[in-house]
Design a protein that fits this description.
- This protein is mainly α.
- It has a domain of 266 residues.
- It contains 15 helices and 6 strands.
- Strands 1-2 form a two-stranded antiparallel sheet.
- It is globular and about 70 Å long.
- The model has no long low-confidence stretch (mean pLDDT 89).
């Protein structure tokens, strides 16, 4: 028996759909508190020392956290080539805005302390704010557009054509609502991290903003669900599905239908746990933040993030990128993956290297554990940040 046939094609596709979700959730949780802390930086820290405290709470680990973004992009490229082709080319301007903002982060971290000048440092503090808020917003906007369908189609030769025009068409009302959910969710998470890593006025301000963000996450997430139910059609496959067949996005018939994104909740009742986790996690984060239970708050906000992202994936399954201009061109788990052999080889590689990454990351956080000491930052003039 050929080794890769130990796991059938359908199972491999499901495994990689799950792994893609895990990688996206991992990025949102691990890098999310960096983005949230940067977004909160100008508001929770008033003095230069306080801002250095916040920056040093994420400074030693933010680069390592971006590994999850690289892993997610790599997984899309290798496991779902059509998804990579459409999303990274169609959302090119949005991706450029995200990359520009993310590039500001390392520059801000490295350059801020080079001059002891209030104007200089304040400018880089706002650059760090942009580096946190803009990606958080645009990631959510992208999800909102995916739920509505992306303007692309395949021709008879399976060549991909993106039919969108400008970046501004992506900034539609529902997509912006999803962007706000993303921002409040990550601000809540960032506030939980700042409370864990700092003391005094900085932690108190972060706690106040975090409680507001937690409430806003619950309200906006519920509002997004209502708008999706009432005003946005989902996608539904009406033809026979060949889960074991070769990838061919045009080998199916798809229609748009009201409420289609909610069908999985009636077919598979356990999927309702995902949105429930998103709502309960944010609510519990609010309660624990008020009670100053720092680790519990961070865990609750992490669960909320996992639930919110899982809600999108489970609602859309088996779709991963629907098309708004030609529903039959929509990409699904069954017709847009790499070959059986490729998925198996990637699974073996992931089974080897992902545990290594998790183990190394865990060790780094163990070494860096503890609160950032304001007194130590005052006394150590050669501090990195």
């Amino acid at each position: 028996m050929i080794l890769h046939q130990l796991i059938d094609y359908e199972t491999l596709r499901i495994i990689w759909w799950v792994l893609l979700g895990v990688l996206l959730i991992g990025f949102a949780i691990m890098d999310g508190f960096d983005l949230g802390a940067a977004t909160l930086l100008p508001f929770v820290a008033k003095t230069d020392v306080e801002r250095r405290v916040v920056i040093n709470s994420v400074g030693p680990t933010w680069e390592g956290n971006q590994v999850w973004l690289i892993l997610g992009g790599g997984a899309i490229f290798a496991a779902w080539p059509p998804l990579y082709a459409v999303s990274f080319s169609g959302f090119y301007l949005a991706m450029f805005a995200i990359l520009f903002a993310l590039i500001l982060r390392p520059v801000g971290f490295k350059y801020r302390s080079k001059r002891d000048n209030p104007t200089w440092r304040n400018a880089w503090d706002w650059a760090l704010f942009v580096g946190g808020a803009v990606p958080a917003l645009i990631f959510g906007v992208a999800v909102g557009n995916v739920l509505q369908g992306v303007p692309f189609h395949f021709n008879s030769e399976l060549r991909i054509f993106y039919d969108g025009t400008t970046l501004f068409e992506l900034l539609n009302p529902f997509a912006l609502l999803c962007g706000l959910v993303s921002v409040t969710m990550l601000v809540m998470h960032g506030a939980a991290w700042i409370c864990l890593k700092t003391d005094g006025p900085v932690a108190d301000r972060a706690r106040a903003y975090g409680r507001i963000a937690a409430i806003a996450t619950v309200v906006l997430f519920l509002l997004g669900g209502i708008v999706l139910w009432i005003g946005i059609d989902g996608f539904h496959i009406t033809s026979t599905i060949n889960a074991m067949g070769p990838s061919n996005p045009l080998a199916k018939t798809v229609v748009k239908a009201p409420g289609a994104w909610f069908e999985n909740y009636s077919k598979y009742p356990l999927t309702a746990l995902a949105p429930l986790l998103g709502l309960v996690g944010a609510t519990v984060a609010f309660i624990f933040m008020s009670a100053k239970r720092e680790i519990s708050t961070l865990l609750a906000s992490s669960l909320s993030i996992a639930g919110i992202i899982a809600t999108v994936g489970l609602s859309m399954f088996p779709f991963i990128l629907p098309s708004s201009v030609d529903a039959n061109s929509s990409l699904t788990v069954w017709d847009s993956s790499s070959s059986h052999m490729t998925l198996f080889i990637m699974l073996v590689a992931a089974a080897i290297f992902v545990p290594i990454i998790i183990a190394y990351t865990s060790w780094v956080y163990h070494v860096m554990w503890g609160k950032v000491d304001e007194k130590a930052i005052r006394e150590e003039h050669g501090h990195a940040y």
